[in-house]
Amino acid sequence: MKTLLTLLLLAAAGPALAQIDPTLLRDPGRLRRVPADTMGRPQLNLDAVYNRPFLQAGRLPVALGGYVEANYQNGRTDGIGEGHQFQMRRVTLFVSSAISKRVKFLTEIEFEDGTKEINIEFASVDFEFSPLLNVRGGIVMNPIGAFNQNHDGPKWEFVDRPIAATQLLPATWSNVGAGLFGKKYTDRWVFAYEAYLTNGFDNSVVDNPESRTFLPASKANPDRFEENVNGQLLTTAKVALRRQKVGELGLSHMGQVYNKFEDDGLVLDQRRRLDVWAVDANTTLPGTRTALTGEWAWVRVNVPDNYAPQYGGRQMGGFLDLVQPLRKGRVFGYENAVLNAGLRLEYVDWNRDRFAETGGAIGDETWAVVPALSWRPSPLTVVRLNYRSQWARDFLGNPAVRSATVQVGLSSYF
């Protein structure tokens, strides 16, 4: 594997080959792991894009990393299922380069479900002026909530990503644009911010196969990386505060006029806006070492009046993860391993509106409970056993449909 990584690094370097010590080819053991944090300071969700393990060969200016996720599952919905299933969820590659002392580049390329989907999730150049002022441009990841940025599989004890982060919000939501970010350290406190202007959503928010207001539908539009559907910029801003040995609190907002309201000067519709607000937090309880990670989001969309009532103008949802270390040390013959127990609670209300005719509440809710066991032979690798119980009620409020799924998953950085 080290030899393969070395060859990949050499191929990525191109013109830099002349600078490489030729003995590296005979000694791939000289590959070194680049520290995720060179400053020794508390990390925030803001830092997730660079806070990953990379491998660098000798003096090569390019570092390489990535992670893999695969799982087995067997699930039933109201007693009907598809039996045993193996899935290759994703392989993600990272490539970073220190172009100069204060100019950095990083890209993240993801291959999902084999190669059914290939996405560039991040590809940006950072210009550092001071810790509090940095400029980023390229394909940026919109910082709404925390999971959208800090989503790497090996960091989580659960096989599935949270439904509120992947279906209420568009997980790994990225767009072409630019903005500012920075951090300020004061003793045990860290303050951070991000603010970006990017391309964004389109009419598929309310015109999609899901038959509901569905923000992730805009991810299917590859043209958002080369043109903006209506010329209106998506604004995303986040502030975060972290206290050392306590935890982090983040507040974020994302908003835009999403519809194509004009074409060559001809007015097609009024300007319809969507707005998303999110709060995220994480902490570790003293004494018990129980880690708590949560996120909650509210969505507001201006839906056309002639749309059916299942297209909600208001949505909300979130998740809470509890992870309790059971044993640290030698586990299954691996030194410094960790055995964890976990529990995830999830809820999404897809439509908080009311029927105009009766005034009754519209249904369309999903909630889930996911107990978990996980084994980490090292901090970079996790093996997960989950039992997912999920209930979904349609917009008419009929009795909920129940799903139960056993999942065994593997995720590892490499």
Automatic annotation (TrEMBL):
Keywords: Plasmid, Signal. InterPro entries: Porin_dom_sf (IPR023614). Residues 1-18 form the signal peptide. The keyword Signal applies. This is Porin.
